[in-house]
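Predict the holo structure. Ligand: zinc ion.
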Amino acid sequence: MTRVPILMYHSVSERPNDETRPLAVRPSDFADQLGYLRDHGFTPITFGALVTALHEDDGRDLPARPVVLTFDDGYADFHTEALPLLEKAGAPATVFLTTGWLADAGQDAAGRPLDTMLTWSQAAEAASCGVELGGHSHSHPQLDQLSDADLREELRRNKALIEDRLGLPVPTMAYPYGYSSARVRREVARAGYTAACAVANDVASGRDDVFTIPRLTIAKGTTLSTFGRAVHDRAIPLIYLKERLLTKGFAVVRRTRYGLRRVRGHV
Ligand SMILES: [Zn+2]
């Protein structure tokens, strides 16, 4: 069975701020990672292209060694740092945009952006260079904590804004914080998305639910040797042991909080 690494990036910056630092990758490290992929025969494709190939065409149209590069949130440094390197490498990529965070969101501004974000024209320029733009909610909330009405609004407003402003279809999205629930996934499908990315830190395959396709976190601490093992699907559970424990711990905390709130609600 075809197994495809989908890499999850955030900021690509030499000088990230305190909030984006843990997940930020230095431009020189990103260049080395693109070089690694080229030297080892990987062919980058967009997330949308992977979904179509894997889930509609049984993987027949996939290149020999596909890899997907995704960037969450829509930081301005995608345009200044990552895009020139991707263009030089001839590598397409996917950016999941939080529309309320965009630098010139204007009256659509919502949520609290963690750093300087892309403008609409920078997003359009990226799209014209072969970058796929996907959804990432409108204001970056924890989707599963929202009421049905707010959840619907977050998903639909995000998708409609990108489609209207850029004149492009937006069939894919990624969950803020990587987290979803059955209710969230149902609403994502109802909003017209055909696939969605989670985090999960595993390699994707045709067996995944199209609304929880796993990705591999690439962050500040990812050395080139770790990167190599991740894209080659070697010892991934070991590489991401810490992240898995943290994610599990986080889920327990969230469940407990939610439980407490529900209990209080009944009092
Ligand atoms: Zn995000």
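The first helix runs from residue 27 to 39. The beta strands are 3-4, 6-9, 43-45, 66-73, 94-97, 132-135, 172-174, 195-200, 204-205, 213-217.
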